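Hey, quick one: can you model this chain's 3D structure?
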Amino acid sequence: MRFLDQAKIYIVSGKGGDGCLSFRREKFIEFGGPDGGDGGKGGDVWVECVDNLNTLIDYRYQQHFKAKNGTPGMGRLRSGPNGSDCIIKVPPGTQVLAEDQETLIGDLGEPGDRIRIAKGGNGGFGNAYFKSSTNQAPRRVNPGQPAEELTIWLHLKLIADVGVMGLPNAGKSTFLAAVSEAKPKIADYPFTTLHPNLGVVRAGDKDFVLADIPGLIEGASEGVGLGTRFLGHVERCHVLLHLIDVNDEDVAESYRIIRHELEAYGGDLVGKLEIVALSKCDTVDDETFAAKARELGAASGKAPLRLSAVSGVGVREMLYLLAETITLSEKNRAAESMPQPENAAWSPV
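Sure thing. Here's the predicted structure for all 349 residues.
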């Protein structure tokens, strides 16, 4: 199934049912009076987060959604039934944006989260509602309120444990294919990957989700090369795996380009745990690798790992390191979310 991370849809809520103009007419009842019922309320449009979806591909083939209208009122004081709601189901991590793609309407991060996007119109009053001591035969009714209609954007930000980043053709898709059952497109030219790919990886007794983020380029934080769309996917990752092609002429500059884009994008991306590795190491000798590693280590402040998805060098060690780093990140998040005592000097006995 193709991954789709954004979709534009048009939604319409239900119109309220009209009130009914009716009078009671029965044998032997001379003055029956008004008996027109009220109209039913129109259905609402909801966006709901569910846990059995991981893409927005369904909304490529259906872009129009409409809730049911309320039923008009009827005689004998019968109110019309309410219209059925329209529920749009989305995967966890979906943001709902207005048509300008800037105004955030809602952020659905957990299954069960839901937000009402368009409210159905209220039903109109029938003439029985307007009966009074001075007007016992009203001919006034209310029409149902109109529906709401608008266009929204659904943006999916991947909820993955590890986000694999790097310049185009850095070996990200090759690494994903080597460690999981995912089958991303792999070729020897930049921008082979145009959509994020997901794979489930096992290291020992721990499973985690790996996301192959399409290659970033200089200016990605400003939208160059669809960069802002792809950078959004790493916001919710525990760990960032930064791959640099060992064959790059200036591996330090390749590292700085991506780090600069992370900093410019914001969203605390630069504060995430990061692992740096030199990929495609099967294509160079030990002396060349050592020189590149010293150059990259000086720029990143970290000792880069040696990795080759083709020959398998460093793959097993990388997976176990990622698993340990994810566990550390989860513990840090849990500690940050714990309520702190009011008295900082207090400590449990």
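One thing worth noting: The CA atoms of residues 88 and 305 lie 44 Å apart.
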